């Protein structure tokens, strides 16, 4: 009975939908998080009669007879829309207004990418993320710096003790990708580029389509709780409907098995 298998694929698909939605809800307050969306496609069809099959010498079947065999997940993509901004007043907090990613040097020397602009100083004055991984290009903040300023174009300046003019110590560079949805998520708000995302395209903030840097702000998650709760309810009801289809198919089989009594 096809209904059993079709409904089973539906339950598996809705479980994936609920898993994806739950992950979005769990990260509603994660800085720089981008929501995920599960995409689905119908499975192949069992054709009992092709459309256009002759029904007489002068007529043909206008639609044919095709029975679907269920659903399958095709992708879980990230939606890189802009999240809301939160003012923190922290000189080392930064947000990108528009497209682009900060570059982070991993312990193995590779580079990963993030929208999370929660930065700090390590014991040597290097600008690092919350795990202590250095931000690239490297920015070293002098020990006697009394004020740190980051321009919209990424230029980092500091005012040192005893000085009256700020000195430029470096410039942050951000990168973009042709297909950001193709990035591989590492966790910890970090991404790796893949053949699907394309190679990183570096540039100066505010130029060539890249976003600007805003100091003292953080980009919050772009998850909308109202949408996620709606998706959660829809997924739950669809899961229940598919389970009901299995129960109905089972009842039909029971009726067939009880015909000879």
Figure out the total of helices. Answer: 2
Name the beta content range: 25-35%
How would a textbook summarize the main sheet?
3 strands, antiparallel
| Rounded mean pLDDT score | 93
Low-pLDDT segments, ≥5 res: none
Order of helices and strands: HEEEEEEEEEEEEEEEEEEEEH
Find the count of extended strands (DSSP E, 2+ residues): 20
Task: Describe it.
The protein is built from 2 helices and 20 strands. By secondary structure, the protein is of the alpha+beta class. The strands form 9 sheets. A 3-stranded antiparallel beta sheet has the order 8-7-11, with no helix packed on it. It has a 3-stranded antiparallel beta sheet with strand order 12-13-14, with no helix packed on it. A hairpin with a 2-residue loop joins strand 16 (184-187) and strand 17 (190-192). The longest helix has 33 residues, at 225-257. The protein is elongated, with a radius of gyration of 27 Å.
Task: Please give a quick description of this structure.
Helix content is 22%, strand content 31%.
Secondary-structure map with pairings?
Elements: H1 2-26, E1 36-42, E2 45-49, E3 65-68, E4 71-78, E5 85-87, E6 94-97, E7 102-105, E8 111-114, E9 120-121, E10 127-128, E11 135-136, E12 145-150, E13 155-160, E14 167-171, E15 174-176, E16 184-187, E17 190-192, E18 201-203, E19 212-215, E20 217-219, H2 225-257
Antiparallel strand pairs: 1-4, 2-3, 5-20, 6-19, 7-8, 7-11, 9-10, 12-13, 13-14, 15-18, 16-17
């Amino acid at each position: 009975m096809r209904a059993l298998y079709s409904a089973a694929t539906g339950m598996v698909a809705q479980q994936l939908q609920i898993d994806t939605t739950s992950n979005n809800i769990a990260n509603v307050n994660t800085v720089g998080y981008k929501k995920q969306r599960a995409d689905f496609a119908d499975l192949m069809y069992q054709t009992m009669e092709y459309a256009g099959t002759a029904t007489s010498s002068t007529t043909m079947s206008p639609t044919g007879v095709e029975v679907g065999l269920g659903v399958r997940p095709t992708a879980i993509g990230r939606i890189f829309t802009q999240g809301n901004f939160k003012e923190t007043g922290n000189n080392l907090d930064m947000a990108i207004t528009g497209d682009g990613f900060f570059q982070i040097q991993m312990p193995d020397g590779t580079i990963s990418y993030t929208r999370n602009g929660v930065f700090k100083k390590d014991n040597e004055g290097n600008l690092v993320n919350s795990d202590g991984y250095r931000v690239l290009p490297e920015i070293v903040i002098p020990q006697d710096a009394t004020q740190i300023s980051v321009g919209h174009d990424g230029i980092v300046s500091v005012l040192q003790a005893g000085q009256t003019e700020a000195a430029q110590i470096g410039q942050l560079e951000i990168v973009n990708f042709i297909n950001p949805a193709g990035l591989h998520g590492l966790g910890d708000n970090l991404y790796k580029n893949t053949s699907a995302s394309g190679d990183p395209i570096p540039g100066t903030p505010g130029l060539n389509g890249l976003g600007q840097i805003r100091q003292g702000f953080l980009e919050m998650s772009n998850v909308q709780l109202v949408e996620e709760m709606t998706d959660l309810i829809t997924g739950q009801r669809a899961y229940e409907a598919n389970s009901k289809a299995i129960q109905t198919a089972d009842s039909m089989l029971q009726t067939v098995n009880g015909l000879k009594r």
